[in-house]
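User: Reviewer 2 asked us to show a designed sequence for the structure in our supplementary figure. I'm pasting the structure tokens here. Could you produce the per-position amino acids so we can include them in the response letter?
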């Protein structure tokens, strides 16, 4: 009889379901009634509800000054909401103390609009520095950095300094640095803002590739040419 004696199986299955639902929840970013106000009275946005699924690629759009960068900074925990709650992979950001933020950021790669490369470090070191905190062995981390720089077409420029690179190349270093940790989430702030059409296409292809490998991508841009012919979800601020 199936129910005549206790079995380990149901517990086991329950545990699997628990892990699936808890860690593998389809929603990786969730905002509930999020408001951001800068004193004294600049309300950038209010009561934003948003759910982004694991593996999605969404465009965060709207004209300059509408709050795209502010939104990405909230997701990156560089800024706290005035009210409301944000969950990243099930973690409520209000429960994350400032000292815990670096751990949260291991899940997130942020591509800054203004690159923020270290001018006194080579291309290789700019990217390698992101890996130092993760405790990878030197050899592994070297291989990883070389691979990611090859991936963005900068294998030949690893020993150069940022000032020796074009804007497009610097942008690609910034992308390599953001993704070398293989983050679950990539936040890109106008990553094509300073690029010509050809470089823009290259960056778009890189972002698509990251997404195809499983990363959730939030791509902020005011440029409607980038998303008007895609099937991607568009979130207008
Ligand atoms: N640190 C800050 N202090 C005060 N106001 C800010 C700050 N950062 C952004 N803002 C304001 O927030 C609004 C949205 O800016 P931002 O998020 O940079 O827009 P976008 O990225 O869409 O161009 C602007 O009105 C800007 O002046
Ligand atoms: Mg911006």
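Assistant: Here is a per-position design you can include in the supplement:
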């Amino acid at each position: 009889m199936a129910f005549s004696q206790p079995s380990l199986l149901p517990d086991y299955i329950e545990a699997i379901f628990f892990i699936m639902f808890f860690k593998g929840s389809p929603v990786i970013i969730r905002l509930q009634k999020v408001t951001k106000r800068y004193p004294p009275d600049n309300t950038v946005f209010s009561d934003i509800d948003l759910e982004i699924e694991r593996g999605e690629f969404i465009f965060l759009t709207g004209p300059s000054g509408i709050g795209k960068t502010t939104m990405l900074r909230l997701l990156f925990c560089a800024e706290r909401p005035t009210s409301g709650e944000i969950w990243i992979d099930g973690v409520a950001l209000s429960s994350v103390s400032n000292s815990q933020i670096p751990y949260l950021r291991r899940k997130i790669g942020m591509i800054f609009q203004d690159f923020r490369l270290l001018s006194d470090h080579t291309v290789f070191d700019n990217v390698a520095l992101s890996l130092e905190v993760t405790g990878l062995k030197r050899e592994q981390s070297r291989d990883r950095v070389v691979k990611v720089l090859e991936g963005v077409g900068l294998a030949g420029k690893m020993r150069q300094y940022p000032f020796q690179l074009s804007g497009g190349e610097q942008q690609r270093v910034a992308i390599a640095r953001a993704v070398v940790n293989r983050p679950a989430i990539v936040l890109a702030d106008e990553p094509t803002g300073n690029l010509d059409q050809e470089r823009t296409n290259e960056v778009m292809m890189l972002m698509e590739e990251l997404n195809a490998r499983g990363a959730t991508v939030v791509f902020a841009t005011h440029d409607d040419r980038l998303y008007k012919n895609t099937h991607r979800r568009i979130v207008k601020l």
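For the response letter, you might also mention the following. The chain has a mean pLDDT of 89. The longest strand covers residues 27-38.
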